[in-house]
Amino acid sequence: MAIPDPRPLAGEPLSIDLLNTRWMENETLRDLFDTPDGLAVWLDSDIAARELSGHEVQADRETLDALLAARSALAALIDSPADPAGLKALNAVLAHGCVRHGIDGDGPVQRVEVDSALWLPAWVAADNYLRLLGDRPERIRPCANPDCVLHFYDTSKNGTRRWCSMSGCGNRAKASRHYARHRRD
After folding, report:
1. Would the pTM count as exceeding 0.85?
2. Neighbours of 161 (CB within 10 A)
3. 39, 171, 47, 25: which is closest to 7 by C-alpha?
């Protein structure tokens, strides 16, 4: 039986979904990867399963270590894109793989190759981050709640999303403003 994903926000693009394996709950920083089953939960999530489909990935310590290296690099770069240590760390993750281009009877094909299967999830997450940067980097955002550590990729039409979740942080902010307005009266 699969263990449910306890995270308040899942389903963002893979790189951001990896970042969001840490979240605040009752003023405590939680980490999905703190439990032995956490990696399996993340690998079974819809976004990871889709991005890694067709590949055999083991939920073992080595794969977790590679993902933690990628998450650490992404965390350094998400708020400071030119951070030298973050750039070096992300490039180190990316050095473990590449995309091979080819052609078959159906047309052009791309195939991800990594030096070891344990690096596949980390490499695919790092590559996903590069694609987001190449597409719309200004849409990669932290939640506007200063107490929240989650990030998101804003896919709204006008690009004005502020909260990781309207039902969570957005609702708390609206309730707080409402309370402050009525308290002054």
Report:
1. yes
2. 17
3. 25
